[in-house]
Amino acid sequence: MRISIIGTGNMGGAIASALSSAGFDTEVYDSVQEKAEALREQNENIRVLSSLEMTSGSDAIIIAVKPQVLPSLYDALREVDTRLWISIAAGVPLSVLEDHLGSGNVIRFMPNIAAKARKSVTAIAAGDSVSTEERDLAFAIASSFGTAYFLPESLFPAFIGISGSGIAFYFEMMHQMAMAGVREGIPYPEALKIVSDTAESAAALQKESGTNAIELETRVCSAAGTTIEGIRALQDRGFASAIIKAVGSAAAKSVELENKARYGER
């Protein structure tokens, strides 16, 4: 299965490495040839293409360039033949991609930055013309660098709020908890490792048990104990409201970007 990736930035490079390790016939193109060559030095199984046109004939082409770069590539991309287009450009709707690529076989990915660790959480939205076989291919590609979920495109802003951008909210909380550990006497590097391991343990327990998160929280809270005091402090300072506002703000920005892309389409 031949997969071509256009763009070898952080996300494109991570996806290429994961696909190659998963056994896909992987090739990359970047307008900055040195970036593509640097990626090949890390993984000799990845082929570097000297032109965008050489991606033609691939089973799937992944467009991994920044959204603002995409319009400058549309004319060249329309001349390329592929079974399936996959775009990771945030804020660019399927309708815009289909129109400018001249194809109905288009899928959107919304991965998060953890693709580099092969722990990305990726949302997948498929155009109406995409076959079951092509959907399966897209799912296999996304699964090579983490977990994947098919969602209606209308839910992408919500997904961005809780995952695409949401991963940064976890980083912020991890940092602040580590800093709180510093205040209590634990050096930052050690505190951050403890916080990171705790986050991983919480996620593992929830996944393994399938239990509602609030039920797990109540299990940790002993009567008149330490945890309920901490939970009360979070509630008193608007923790729940801040989280909901952060997710909503990221989702609203996503809707704004998609509307701008649609306006550009017209």
Keywords:
eight-stranded mixed β-sheet
Secondary structure layout plus pairing:
Layout: E1 2-6, H1 10-21, E2 25-29, H2 33-42, E3 47-48, E4 60-63, H3 74-78, E5 85-87, H4 94-101, E6 106-110, E7 120-126, H5 132-143, E8 146-150, H6 156-164, H7 166-183, H8 188-209, H9 213-220, H10 226-236, H11 239-265
Parallel strand pairs: 1-2, 1-4, 2-3, 4-5, 5-6, 7-8
Antiparallel strand pairs: 6-7
Q: Summarize this, please?
A:
The chain has 266 residues and is an alpha/beta fold. The protein contains eleven helices and eight strands. It has an eight-stranded mixed sheet, sandwiched between helices.
Task: Please tally the β strands and state the result.
Answer: 8
Largest sheet: 8 strands, mixed
The neighbouring-strand order within the major sheet is 3-2-1-4-5-6-7-8
Q: Mean pLDDT score, rounded?
A: 94
Which structural class best describes the helix and strand composition?
alpha/beta
pLDDT < 50 runs, ≥5 residues: none
User: What share of residues is helical?
Assistant: 40-55%
Number of helices: 11
Principal-axis shape? elongated
Distance between the termini: 36 Å
CA radius of gyration: 21 Å
Beta-strand level of the residues, as a percent range?
5-15%
Order of helices and strands: EHEHEEHEHEEHEHHHHHH
Pathway: Amino-acid biosynthesis; L-proline biosynthesis; L-proline from L-glutamate 5-semialdehyde: step 1/1
GO biological process, one term: L-proline biosynthetic process
EC number: 1.5.1.2
Function: Catalyzes the reduction of 1-pyrroline-5-carboxylate (PCA) to L-proline.
